[in-house]
Amino acid sequence: MLSIWLHLLSWLYGLVVGLRNFLYDKKIKTSRCYIKPLLVNIGNLSAGGTGKTPFVIYLAQLFAEQKVVAVLSRGYKRKSSGFRLLNAHTTAATAGDEPWLIYQKTRQNFNIVVAVCENRIQGIAHITSYRPDVEIVLLDDAFQCRSIIPHVNILLTTFHRPFFTDHLLPLGRLREPQAASKRADIIIVTKCPSNLTKKNMTELQGTLQTYAPSAIFFTYIRYHKAVNIWSHQPVKVPSTLLLVTAIADPWPLYSHLKRAGYNVLHLAFPDHHWFKYKDIVHIINRFHALQDVNKAIITTEKDRARLINQPWTGLLTAFPILYIPMEVGFLPSNGHKECITQIDTLLYKPDRRGSNE
């Protein structure tokens, strides 16, 4: 019975989303084009878990080698509203955990600006007013934002759950039908096994291109040494770990730790969950229950944002808490050069330059 209701709700949701896309496709609802700044959208069809944040960081750092770049996000689940430019005093609560992490990873680069705003058109206007020299704006999680036409549309999907195997909400995790992937100029398959074969790539490329004739690239997660959340120094990881996550897809990190030979107990919270006092007490109790004396709490970089600078943070300072930094790697290793060449070609293609009118 539950399955029947989920199918019905998913069908109704699909009707609403389909109508919205139809109105934009037929130009009944208008979309805005820009000559400057150049807009690169990084998004997904699914409701999170595709590794979008590390890819945004990767692109921002790469473009900032030669240009002034801005990252614009909605600031999902932040405890503020309106336009905000992130600075040294910004917290994850006021900006959202993902924009806060993007800022923390790029704050030393003067060529990178990070901002949040629910209204992306207003956000772009504020950014260019503050920094007129901004040449590229990376629109974080804006694949469903049809009110703006980006110069390049990048769609992310995971290797272990590509969008064509999924279903619309609430039956599955898709925010749009699979056919919406045709708007993508580039598809990035994320969280691939690092030993992915050429044969596997070719097979997956063939399937993806039946949905969207896009350029397709493959990436994996490159994990770094664990870092102490308090001292910010690399540390040796103990044999037993309490893994605490509040992200959409914790499986890659859990698998990474298990393959490395650690004894892992996983405590999972909903994506973007703001920890409360009772959650912290629960975490501490589960940690105390671990029998091994050689143990620690370990979490993700993004979850770290919601564990520090909180009223109850003092309860945790006595415990060894680690996080594992990560970044994007391409398969094959020279794939990043082809990807950037493809983005540049699309960005500066004459027929993609819009009008501000």
Automatic annotation (TrEMBL):
Which EC number(s) does UniProt give?
2.7.1.130
The answer, when asked if Lipid metabolism is one of the entry's keywords, is yes
The protein's job, in short, is: Transfers the gamma-phosphate of ATP to the 4'-position of a tetraacyldisaccharide 1-phosphate intermediate (termed DS-1-P) to form tetraacyldisaccharide 1,4'-bis-phosphate (lipid IVA).
Keyword hit for Thylakoid: no
> What SUPFAM superfamilies does the record tag this protein with?
P-loop containing nucleoside triphosphate hydrolases
The metabolic or biological pathway listed in the UniProt record of this protein is:
Glycolipid biosynthesis; lipid IV(A) biosynthesis; lipid IV(A) from (3R)-3-hydroxytetradecanoyl-[acyl-carrier-protein] and UDP-N-acetyl-alpha-D-glucosamine: step 6/6
List the top taxonomic levels of the source.
Answer: Bacteria, Pseudomonadati, Bacteroidota, Cytophagia, Cytophagales
Record-level Gene Ontology MF annotations: ATP binding; lipid-A 4'-kinase activity
> This protein is called what?
Tetraacyldisaccharide 4'-kinase
InterPro entries assigned? LpxK, P-loop_NTPase
Which top EC class is given?
transferase
Spell out the HAMAP family in the cross-references.
LpxK
Question: Which key words tag this protein in UniProt?
Answer: ATP-binding, Kinase, Lipid A biosynthesis, Lipid biosynthesis, Lipid metabolism, Nucleotide-binding, Transferase
Q: Which residues bind ATP?
A: S46, A47, G48, G49, T50, G51, K52, T53
- Catalysed reaction, written as an equation: a lipid A disaccharide + ATP = a lipid IVA + ADP + H(+)
Gene behind the chain: lpxK
Instruction: Name the domain of life.
Output: Bacteria
Any Gene Ontology CC annotation:
plasma membrane
Family assignment from sequence similarity: Belongs to the LpxK family.
**Pfam families linked to this entry:** LpxK
Q: Name one GO biological process term.
A: lipopolysaccharide core region biosynthetic process
